[in-house]
Amino acid sequence: MHILVGVTGCIAAYKACEVVREFQRAGHEVSVVMTAAAQQFVGLATFQALTQGCAKTSLFGDAEPIPHIALAEEADAFVIAPATANVCAKLAHGIADDLLTSTALACTCPVFVAPAMNVHMYENAATQANLDALRSRGVRVITPDAGYLACGDVGPGKLPEPSVIARTVLDALLSAGALAGKRVLVTSGPTVEPIDAVRFISNRSSGKMGAAIVRAALDAGAHVTVVSGPVSVAYDARAEVVWVETAAEMLSAAEDAFADADAAICAAAVADMRPERAEARKLKKGRDDAALASIPLVENPDILSALGHGKRVGQVVVGFAAETEDVLSNAQEKLIRKQADLIVANDVSEGAVFGADADEASFVTPSGGERLGLLPKTEVAARLVERLAEMMHLSA
Fold this sequence. Notes:
Blueprint (H helix, E strand, L loop, with lengths): L1 E6 L7 H11 L3 E6 L9 H7 L4 E2 L10 H8 L2 E7 L1 H8 L6 H8 L4 E5 L3 H5 L1 H12 L3 E2 L3 E4 L5 E5 L3 H14 L7 E6 L4 E2 L5 E2 L6 H12 L3 E6 L11 E4 L3 H12 L4 E4 L6 E3 L13 H5 L3 E3 L3 H8 L5 E8 L3 H11 L4 E6 L10 E8 L2 E9 H19 L1
Parallel strand pairs: 1-2, 1-4, 2-3, 4-5, 5-6, 9-12, 9-14, 12-13, 14-17, 17-18
Antiparallel strand pairs: 7-8, 10-11, 15-16, 18-19, 19-20
């Protein structure tokens, strides 16, 4: 493969030299594009030597008349490491005012960004919004390490080791296409079951796990349809999103999408019960005390069970189980009862899963359980998609 490495104006720019070498050691061709600020930290001559002359800095004065298009077309991946807050902001807003940002805008290959900056700059709401915008468009953001920074502060913002960056990129590229041509349904977020015009029954699901699964499946080449309850997270712009509120609406949309899908991943936290009757007006204290004191509930449709029992030969159904005790045995029982092929079991006894960025999960199949331990939800999603690809290959 041909890897294009982008280097921006950060003290960690010296690490980009080793990033280049890591890709070369893995047998890949490497070119480099630098910003003007990057040259204040590492000279162009260094990267010219490392790449046998394949390092560029300017849109002008090059033998190639349109260098940013040529660089974008020859690259199988564009890896910007380090990526400053300024460059991340430019990429998020489509600004193309130098060779690096113009090339990024012209790229159709996978783009990876490894942010590196002061902890306060990294945690600033503007930077986080820019990184979220990039993620929503399919850019892979490599999470920075936490540690002692060049400015003396301590916290996240440190460029990961070059070997980690290279491995992250190459693993993603090698796994890309594992679901190529496949259609995957993902249910995500909570359901909202109305009591009256203003009140409802719901739960703490944030949609973060669903969003991570969506991105991982898209990165693996799948066409993804998301059926989601109300969430504040942004789904990857490459996915088709169907918004719903109630469990009944989610079931209808999920069954429609599953008819043409190869797999369903039911990550939504569907309310087990709903009010028997939803009042069109607001129930008021003093006038509707009896109705407010006792709200009859009825059972909601079981979406995982419906898809599991209704699947065709070759379709794969994955469910989630949030458990507070006997996690693996309860998940195994759920797997059998709902005719799922895999259950992702979460231990929520400490209340740390909903809304959190990490998850203590296990994969449960008819043959047993595999504990993953505490991992970022993005990593759980990546491993789930890998397992799904294996299962779909076996069922084909």
